[in-house]
Amino acid sequence: MISINGNVAALTAENNLNATESSLQTTVSQLSSGLQIQTAADNAAGYVISQYLQAQSNGSNAAISNAQNATGLLQIAQGAMNQQMQILQQMNTLATESANGTNDTQSLTANQQQFASLQSELTQIASTTQYGQVNLLGGTSTAGTFVSNASVAITFQVGAYDQTANLLSVNLSATDATSLGVGAGSASIGSSASALAAMSSVQAAITKLGGEAATLGATQNQLQTIVNNLTVTQQNVYAANSQLVDVNVATASSKFASEQVLAQAGVAVLSQAQSLPQLALKLI
Description:
- The chain has 284 residues and is mainly alpha-helical.
- It is built from 5 helices and 6 strands; from the N terminus they run αααββββββαα.
């Protein structure tokens, strides 16, 4: 029906043009940002899931760094233990030599002096092996001084969440001469008899230190496995988040081209529809 007061055709064309313009603005925003979910208004559920995935990805990345730092800490302790093991082997050799009845007093005295020097070196390594300000091979007092016969408990955060499964703890026992049972007060090789006793003490210390080193080695291997798993997890979570929030450029580009044509057609049709009431003048 041709009328002057009402132009339904123009209203319809205008509504269609507004819808096309709104859709076109959304597509332009997606293509310019590369994201199909920029705010919660775009996709409330998808936005929440994306934030969870982002938190997991960031947490996994931080946990990888934590695990790598933990490996560095254990390597420092392991390296110091390796040096101490060499010292214990020298002490065992000296004790074995001194236990032989062919030694004279002068030889025993010389061996004892070397043995005492090695005892001091054991304690020196234990008291100075640190990761930053953390003593690794013995405890610290409130003043930060080395404490013999103390263990250091360290917990590593190796996961993205506050969960027990994401924690890895390790206890580092003190490895100074006294803690290993070969201190100056318990082991000496100044005589054949004391050298025999020292042999047993040193060999027990070798066994103890070897066990500590083995524990550190196993923990390092565990940390490497954790890093490998976290790396794969972080990559997959990142990919999942990208799949959720990133725009499909090919699809969006095709939609953009279509919407441009619709917008141009809408403008042209609206222009024509607005002139329809003028046809009524020809009937008057």
